[in-house]
Amino acid sequence: MLVLTFGTGVLDAATYLGLHGVFTANMTGNVIFIGLGLAGFETQVLLRAGLALAGFMAGAVVVGRAARGRTVHQHADVFSSWTLVVVSLVITAMAVLLSAGDLSARGLDAVTAVISAAMGAQAVAARRVGVPDVPTVVVTSAIVGLSADHRWSGRTHDRAVLLRRAGAVASMLVGAMVGALLLRMHIGAGVGTSALLLLVVGLHGLVAARRARAAG
Known about the structure:
Strand content: under 5%
Transmembrane segments: 16-38, 45-67, 79-98, 162-183, 189-209
Largest sheet: none
Structural class: mainly alpha
Distance between the termini: 25 Å
Keywords: Membrane, Transmembrane, Transmembrane helix
InterPro entries: DUF1275
Oligomer: single chain
Number of helices: 8
Protein name: DUF1275 domain-containing protein
Pfam families: DUF1275
Shape: globular
Number of strands: 0
Radius of gyration: 18 Å
Helix content: over 70%
């Protein structure tokens, strides 16, 4: 899950800086942008933020509906793993489009919507097999838990839980740094890196599922 969180940081940094100020995974930011746009501020990103939010929700709805009735066995979920593989291929295709040349404004809008839809699908897949305290799209809850349960707050908590929360925050932070640095090469580099990470996690999940079935 930390790999997915890192990949989200890479992708959101690349798309925020390279797609005119919208996120493709962090929908909290896009909701704020939409609110600002409706109030007359940041109107230039209103449409694209709306497309990103709509795409994310559409991807989540499709995968959420397809996942109904499918059970998860010991964090080895074939459906979720295949979903991550498909998502990685979709994002790879978008990386190729972005790397091929300058896209029109409508082309960038379409790419934004497609990547966001893919990340909505990824969020549902990760949620099915997620590790507690390790979110893959936003880390606000991890920061709250890390702060509230730290010894400085007068409470004690399982050290492993605190480490997972800290790992989630650090993964997102470092991922964003890497995504911003890759943008110096090209936006396609950051998007493609995120796709590669998704593919690795998806394939790892398929291997784990096969081993779980073989073990009985």
